[in-house]
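Running this now, will post back.
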Amino acid sequence: MNYPFPDMQQGQTLVFWSLPIAVLHVFHYSNKAVWKPPQPVRGGIPICFPQFANFGTLEQHGFARNRLWTLDEDPSPLPAVNSQSNADLLLKSTEEDLKTWPFRFELRIRITVSAGKLTLIPRVRNVDNKAFTFTLALRNYFSVSDVSEVRIEGLETLDYLDNTLKRERYTEQSRCINFLMASTPTKIAIIDHERKRTIVLRKEGMVDAVLWNPWDKKAKAIPDLGDEDYNTMLCLDAAAVENPINIKPCEEWRGRQELSIVSLSYFSGQLDLHKVINGLR
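Update: finished.
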């Protein structure tokens, strides 16, 4: 469902507003979110492109997340799947964008909704006459019962870069939630016992993951985030950051993110991780 702004042109939309209400309960939206462009909305799934965070010279997380997108009336063909609803969104470089990032591109997002599953397929096409490099992340703001109680499966013992400590490399050895970036498996799970559900993220083409929560002190310093919002949110991003992607003229890069909900299941009092990670019911 789309919620257009009064000054939007026909056919324009915000990428993270194209999700049906049935899946919105999975995502967190700040109670202080600003719903007026060019301010990015604090919640949902902002698209970080062509730069993630401050890994470059552009504005934080690049400019794609605070642009107005259009419906792609003639999308490139992708395999059709029965019982699914699709929406194809398109963002093209503008003359204003070229002043800060001098490369012409087309960024497409296919949003596919099916029973218990939400899939996003980002595609970046180089329509310039020179190669360019970019980083990209799908910033998933998930709603959780209590951020201090949820458990993350799939990131154990992996190296990560701590942005709060000058991006020094560490190895994850605890359940503490930090800002981190690491080369990760294709499947990661957020286990929320209180809500009796597990959010499973599967990804392709985006080898990194970013786990972020501002905690209490930083939350109070973020204008569009409620002071207590950090308690019930967790960002887990599918990302391509540590090794930026390079594409030549006329080439296209493609990624994929699939989100699904799995009910918690137990065996002898222990969580059955095989069912959680593999999406078995």
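Residues 215-221 form the longest helix (7 residues). More later if anyone needs it.
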